Amino acid sequence: MPARRGEKLREHILWTAKDVFLEAGFERTSMDVVAQRAETSKRSLYAHFPSKDALFSGVVALVRELYLDRLGSPEDYLTAERADPADALVRYCGRLLQLLLWSSSLRTLRMGITEAERVPEIASGYYEAVFEAPMARIVAYACRTWGLTQEEAREVAEILVGRTVYPELMQGLLGVREPIADRPDEATLAADVDLDKIAASVRRLVPGAPAS
């Protein structure tokens, strides 16, 4: 196998470092271990990432990209079989919760919280991706679908996520509920989260949403 170079090596290091950070946590992760696991030299590692903070920042950016790509937008949950726009919003919120309750996501969130005071810019960037970007997608969808104003849609999004996502996420972060062990699949969405509870909130908040 030819040696990885340039961007391919950088990407490989990030994927390797992601696993090491999740296994060991930030404090116990060393650049030596990352270089060894990535099968590259420390010189090459430091050429791409001059410090552990820079490496962690790169890993957080990678996780943000993966997370938002897997989540998509509410329109992505509209299908020929499921054409109800309110149902699409229910499934989008369910998918958001499902992804956050994944054991890998919970460990990453805990690391971000632990390091937030020391590297606030990394924590704020992760918060924007994990919470603000999904919220903005709900706002845009509600405006387009139901003709709500930005202010009305933002209020709906904040209440909806506050009722259906945050309580269970806090339970997951504190270990009160079992995390989702395997990578969340849309096929298991209904088994992993309570879609009926989310649907009840959508019906109360969105004008014209069906009662069932």
UniProtKB/TrEMBL annotation:
Organism domain of life: Bacteria
Limits of the HTH tetR-type domain: 7-67
Keyword DNA-binding: yes
A Pfam match: TetR_N
Signal sequence region: none
InterPro entries given in the database record: Homeodomain-like_sf, HTH-type_TetR-like_transc_reg, HTH_TetR, TetR_C_Proteobacteria
SUPFAM superfamilies assigned to the protein according to its UniProt record, in alphabetical order: Homeodomain-like
Keyword terms of this UniProt record: DNA-binding
DNA-binding region: 30-49
The keyword DNA-binding belongs to this UniProt entry's keyword annotation: yes
Name of the protein this chain belongs to: TetR/AcrR family transcriptional regulator
Naturally occurring in which organism (per UniProt): Kitasatospora nipponensis
Taxonomic lineage of the native organism: Bacteria, Bacillati, Actinomycetota, Actinomycetes, Kitasatosporales
